[in-house]
Hints:
single chain; alpha/beta; Rossmann fold; six-stranded parallel beta sheet; 6 strands; 50% helix; disordered N terminus
Amino acid sequence: MGRASLKWITLLVAMAVPAVALALDTRATTADVVVLGEVHDNPHHHLAQAEWIGAIAPAAVVFEMLGEEQAEQVNAGWDDLDALGARLEWEASGWPSFDIYAPIFEAARGVPVFGAAIPRDAARAAMQNGIIETFGPDAARFGLDQALPNTVQATREAFQQAAHCNALPDHLLPMMVDIQRLRDAELARATLAALEAEGGPIVVITGNGHARTDWGLPVYLTAAAPTVRVFSLGQSEDGRAPDGVFDLVIDAPGVDRDDPCAVFARPKGG
């Protein structure tokens, strides 16, 4: 997506904000934290998130995609979106193209940004030392010290297996669940830090899996701060609802994408 397309998207966001402001769920307008889920590679979802930011006018925005140092780079100020993407080394991060996330940054221009990404070395450490030690002294506060009920653990392991094309060895599944919990708790910690530093409302930009209220970041945020009011938005594609529970789900067109499981079907050496 080139510069011309990026300018078009930014203009579309600016035009769409008033309509979204009129349509916002009243629970969102009174929440301390508004979690905006997404399918990461769907530009329509990012446009919707940008519209919601414009309508909510948050005191701060938390990004699943950014580390703390990257958040500091955003907060240092920027004029050009392309330059910001280069400064963040976004294209080397593994996330989809910066161009489809750019409308979110444009909508949040001048708003304090917080990063909630788990560094890769920390994720690797968690696999060796466990998520409690990796998360640190606040683990109990955010509920990481509590084992999941057996039925929930089994459900979440099955979900991880399906999400990885049924290609994972069974012995890795408990750790995959733990890493997801670690990411949820880190998102909750960053969100609470933003709320304490800036006041509300806080908007969180994250995947649908972290936004779900039945086992995502809202669970860990509520464990740490039970009085914080949380509203969670999920985004579907072509009417296919996302897995999990949300306060509201909105729909958008899907996108063409390759079969992520095709690589596992290729003959070895082919």
